[in-house]
# Entry
Amino acid sequence: MTTTPRDEPPTNALILELERVHDMLRRDLRSCQDLAAAARAGAPATDLRGAVEQLGRRSPHLRLGVDCVRFCALVHAHHGGEDRTLFPVVRRDAPHLAPVIDRLEADHRVVSDLLDRIEAAVDRLADAGTADASRDVVDALDALSDHLLAHLALEEEVLRPFLLSMDSWPTTERAG
# Structure
C-alpha cells in the first residue's frame, strides 16, 4: 500500500500550519454539509436554527446565517495570503510547479466566486426566508464544499515537498 502525503505525520511548522488551517476549514465545511442536508430533508426551521446556534458555539469563526460572512472572509484571507506571499516564492524557487500554481490560483478565483455566492444567498435568506432562498444557500454551500475540499487536497499534495525545503513562511518582501 502506498502512502499519501497526509498519511505521514507533518514534519515541519509550515506543513503543520497549512494542514491546521485546512483541517479547520474541512471541519466547518462538514458541519455546513450536515446542515445543508438537514435543510434539504425538510428539517423544521426551529431545528435548523438550533443547529446553526450549536455550530456557532462550536466553531469560533463560523456561524452560518450569522457569521457565514466571517468564514468567507477567512477563506478569502487565507487564499489572498497564499497568492501574495507563498505562490510567488514557489514560482521563483520551483518553476516546474508553475502549471500547478496556475491551477491553484484559478481555484482561488472559483472559490472566491462561490464565497460571494454564499454571502449573497445568506443575505437573501435573511431578507426573505423563503424555500427558494434556503435552497440557494444549500446549493451554494454544496458547490463550495465540493470545490474547496478538492482544492485543499491538491494544494497539500503539491506544496508539501516544497514546504519541507523552507524554514519559515515567506514574507511579502521575500516573495517579490
Notes: DSSP finds six helices and no strands in the chain. The first helix runs from residue 13 to 40. The helical segments are 13-40, 45-58, 68-93, 98-128, 131-164, 172-175. The radius of gyration is 18 Å.
